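We give its fold:
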Amino acid sequence: MDAQLFGAPAGPLPAETLRAALDARVNDARPWLIFQRGAGTPLTLTFADAAQLARRWAQALRSAGVRAGDRVALLLPNGPDFIGAFFGVQQICATPVPLPWPVVSMGPLVLPAGAAAVLAIAEPRVLVAPTAIEACPVPVLTPDAAVSGVGEQAEPQPSSSVGVDAALVAPAFIQFTSGSTGRPRGAIVSQRAAVHSAWAMGQALRLSTDDIGVSWLPFFHDMGLVGVVLSSLLAGFPVHVLTPAEFLLRPRRWLELLSSTRATITVAPNFAFDLVLRRARTLFPSLDLSALRFALNGSEPVLRATLAAFATAGAEAKLRSGAVLPVYGLAENALGVTFQAEGAPDADAPLDGRNVPSVGVPLPGMDVAVRRADGSLAQVGEEGEVTVKGAALMDGYLGDAEGTARALRAGWLWTGDRGLIVNGRLHLTGREKELVIKAGRKFHPADIEQVVATLVDAPPNGVVAFSVLRESAGGEELVIVAELRRRPTGDLVSQIRGKLSETLGVMADRIELVGAGDLPRTTSGKLRRAECIARYGART
């Protein structure tokens, strides 16, 4: 039997564009995004507040020379300004390009590693940032220009001269993968794709105004943007928002908010569930998670050991059985592809001595097929590359016709992820891609290697970075091996970890310092990456 799965019909969408979706909430005074501020009073943004902010930002962007069809880069943390700027760009039929915000931001704001390469490809009219940025290649627009006072009465704006057709043509946003030397790729997500993806996820989960969300995911990432911001906008429910730094520094805060707010839905990568198990396990008996309908686990490999351990701990907090649901999505499909159904968990698929959890069935309007390298359909139970078809597919990669042609073939997206279909469910088994996935974010190995090379006295091609799946660690570990020409001075391992955290916002799990010439290379001097992974990846 062919390895294919077909989603149910999606039904009519609630809006044609993101602009229309927010405009429909212009008089809605209910809380939408509640930004937690440590021990301080949370800042509540209503739907109406967000619509007002969008109009203010639209005016500021027009004054800065942004016109329909332009692109606008956004370098902003989770907060009202990101929401106002993102939807302000929508209001004038331009296209937002979110950039990764540093996990820890100290001192003057600088362009994150890889941002210059993204700006060169995206060619934005302006970059929106909290403060001025020295040596920025494009003009910087700060929130002061938007007069972004929440709750103030915004002056009515004249109807835009840009019509509905232009709003439909303008992409909803462009989602770039992390990277610079690996040439970052920007997935062009259309208005229809963005609305369809957010709506389909809501349909699959039966989301409504009665739901309550909690999230620490960054808004610049598709999981936070589409999975949290857009899904809650379309379904009309409130979300309590932390920053990634708040979660990483104090993981228990996520659990505490889930309990105190009586949250019904949350979403995070597998590593986050593992992190709270390791650092906040004793907290569970004091919590009440009985209201939590869905704790979605996705964006990186979902591990059976983590699912089982969290279910056991959650039971002490009255977490209902089956609430933790593995899901699958990717930026090239706006986000969601398959979700596991509510209730009893699907059976695992055995593969090479491990149990591979199911990530469920296609969302409404999505089709999934597993294919062999020659493009033919695999059979049920046969491993191959996962391909996806549906209304949420990207239009292509910005300025990369060759990459687009490889990814989109005859209406199907070749994801680069490997999997198999068993008992009508998709199971992900690995990746075709060489990208490093850490904490749900994608990095080109060369970018990590370049940062490390600036710190160590290494020969050419003397640093290799890769991730390995380590079930005992609850996710993928980032491993870095660096050759040294001479004995280091000081704690070089700590220096490397600090530099990676500062520049890329990524934590290295294991760093090995070896002698010059230890890494395997080809006769032309290139690293034998697969051999490096085989040699160093299995070490603990």
